[in-house]
Q: What sequence folds into this?
């Protein structure tokens, strides 16, 4: 019997059994078992069978079928003679028939060499250029907005500076810490008939927020921001006015304490380099305008001061709470107006119902990334 005849008979037996889902059968290669197994494994078969035919005395020939796993490990071997049934035998014993220890060793050597060669191919050349650093995320950002203008332009409002320190976790998501400080407050033109402003002024804030970047191009960036802050606020007590003598009387303000504030912002920035961008950001700060104290003085403190003034006594003659800055209602201001005139105005502020106060502004900002 020749090797091709043995292969055809083995294939027919395998097909008839219907038990092999993926089996590759190959003839013995004169160059050695190892090359046959490697070639069979390369087609990703579950089992590789190597058929070898050995001439024996007489007309019959001995056929040895060796079974190999894809990794080159010898699974088993079967020996048969034409015309005689093959008897079942132990795997350990069978595995030593039909393939030599040297052949198994050479199989493992060839497979290991192939794996090593594949690993070397996957490595980049020593002189290959480094992969460019991704500058779109996982970076710290420092934003400075030295000038914030109130909207609508030309109306009374607060001018201030914003500083923001953030970290971009992904290309579209980041978090930041922001701080704002008012450095100028403008008043409306003097008008004795003008009502008190119902807007709460923000003297400064410190807050946390998140940023969402839906658009990030090499030259353009669009970011949406939302955050919460703790704001130091103040309210107008007396508007800018003109006295009987024609002189201007400056507006007066009182501190209304700390209150929570929400923030929403939209930034459109032009990217000058991976590290620098210049942007315009529209921000809206919103909070409750309800006032519970002016300069730390509650309604009871102001009522006591008002009674003293009506009796002709100074405000400092009454007992007030520990947090009340009674001195802020004593003496005169730079315009020569008595500060005690603000006591009834402060009481009026405390009686006003609270509403949602908005502060809309636009900032010109510079952002550095590193």
A:
């Amino acid at each position: 019997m020749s090797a091709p005849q043995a292969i055809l008979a083995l294939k027919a037996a395998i097909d008839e059994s219907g038990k092999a889902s993926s089996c590759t059968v190959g003839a013995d290669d004169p160059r050695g078992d190892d090359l046959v197994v490697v070639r069979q494994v390369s087609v990703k078969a579950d089992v590789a069978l190597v058929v070898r035919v050995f001439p024996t005395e007489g007309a019959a020939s001995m056929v040895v079928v060796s079974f190999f796993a894809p990794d080159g490990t010898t699974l088993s071997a079967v020996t048969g003679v034409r015309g005689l049934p093959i008897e079942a035998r132990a795997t350990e014993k069978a595995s030593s028939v039909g393939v030599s220890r040297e052949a198994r060793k050479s199989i493992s050597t060839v497979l290991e060499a192939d794996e090593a060669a594949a690993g070397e191919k996957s490595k980049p050349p020593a002189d290959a250029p480094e992969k460019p650093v991704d500058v779109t995320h996982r970076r710290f950002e420092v934003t400075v907005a030295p000038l914030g203008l109130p909207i609508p332009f030309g109306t009374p409002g607060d001018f201030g500076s914003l500083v923001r320190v953030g970290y971009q976790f992904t290309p579209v998501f980041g978090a930041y810490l922001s701080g704002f400080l008012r450095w100028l407050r403008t008043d409306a033109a003097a008008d004795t008939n003008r009502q008190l402003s119902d807007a709460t002024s923000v003297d400064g804030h410190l807050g946390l927020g998140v940023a969402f970047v839906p658009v990030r191009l090499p030259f353009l960036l669009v970011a949406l921001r939302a955050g919460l802050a703790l704001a130091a606020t103040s309210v107008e007590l007396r508007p800018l006015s003109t006295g009987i003598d024609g002189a201007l009387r400056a507006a007066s303000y009182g501190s209304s304490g700390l209150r929570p504030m929400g923030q929403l912002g939209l930034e459109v920035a032009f990217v000058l380099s991976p590290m620098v961008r210049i942007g315009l950001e529209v921000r809206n700060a919103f909070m409750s305008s309800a006032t519970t104290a002016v300069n730390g003085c509650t309604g009871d403190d102001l009522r006591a001061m008002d009674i003293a003034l009506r009796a002709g006594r100074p405000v400092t003659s009454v007992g007030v709470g520990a947090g009340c800055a009674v001195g802020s209602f004593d003496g005169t201001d730079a315009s020569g107006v008595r500060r005690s005139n603000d006591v009834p105005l402060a009481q009026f502020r405390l009686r006003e119902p609270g509403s949602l106060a908005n502060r809309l502004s636009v900032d010109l900002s510079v952002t550095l990334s590193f």
User: Anything to note?
Assistant: The chain has two domains: 3-122, 139-291+352-369. Residues 101-122 form the longest helix (22 residues). The two ends are 77 Å apart (CA to CA). Residues 139-291+352-369 form a domain with the Porin fold (CATH 2.40.160.20).
